[in-house]
Amino acid sequence: MERSLPPNADASMPVYTPSQLTTEVREMLELALPTLCIEGEISNLSRPASGHLYFSLKDARAQVRCALFRGRSLRLSFQPRDGDLVRAYAKASLYPARGDFQLIVEHLEEAGEGALRRAFEALKQRLAAAGLFDAAAKRPLPRLPQRLGVITSPSGAAIRDVLSVLERRFPSLPVLIYPVAVQGEGAAAQIAAALELAGRRREVDLLLLTRGGGSLEDLWPFNEEIVAHAIRACPLPVISAVGHEVDLTISDLAADLRAPTPSAAAETLSPDRGAYMAGLAEHRRRLHSALTRTLQRREERLLTLTRRLTAQHPGRRLRDRAQRLDELEARLRRGIEQRLGTSRQRLSAAARALHTVSPLATLERGYAVIQRTDGCILRRADEATPGALVHARLGSGRLDCRIEKIYDEPEPALAPLSP
What is the pTM of this model? Predict the structure, then answer.
């Protein structure tokens, strides 16, 4: 019976055993392919007692078996698990016992977000140790910004959210946008340059660094060391609002304030217009009340000082002294008059008393003073001589008399003289 051979085959071709074939194929693979870098998801991970690791790397359409021997696995910086996205550096080979194609892994590292998270943690620890996240280094935010600078993509959702919140809460706040790329290659450098530019120009008094949500890879420009240093070097206070509330970036840690979302950042940095106006009205009322009380106190003080000034004014004092002088003069006059009156009364009484004992008063009562021609007053009858001329002084006028007769004893009572 004649055999039917496939095309390109003849009877002189060598015949391989399975072991010969797998050995030759393995040698061909290992010689033909250099060290490969392959990225995929771990599945069917096996950890036998030998310490070797066996797993598959897969994507949506294919998978390949891998072996990581114990010596290499002990040097891994992470613990591989099913579902991890990894990057393997390996050589292509064949497992002869089963004829399976496989990769001999020489180095395995996390890929995608796993690698990025490890890089994030390492950078966070290093920058924290350098003091970039210290609370003491945080700058205070202005209570009411005069102008807000926003570093973001001019066409992204973040800037629309920020402007929408500001329009609702405080539309009078001016906003200056510093346009930058917020993801992809070169984005971190643009962000750092915008921070430096804003700090140099001083066109605003507060900066908002923001973008919307995304994967860790999308947010990675905000995890670059250059951005962290630019934030701390900027002389203006910086708010960081990157991604969603669950996202945390290096820029959030380095900024003076972290907001969970762009909208929350706009809420934080802007006062509510209604509450602000109500507060302004309350401040106006309190200011008016305080001003009124101050004016009242000042008016009372002014009145008191005016009274004191009026009371102490030289003209007033001169008038008071003149009036006092007039009063003293009047009192002096009254005192003099009273003393003169008293003296007059005393003098009159003395005059009356003197008059009472005065010889003249006696003369007025009908008595006379007899005086000799030599001026001596006769007190006794024997001091005169008959026929002598004497003068008789009466109460009114006087008489020249001649003594007719002298009596030694006076008569008991005066009697009319006989003719």
Answer: 0.52
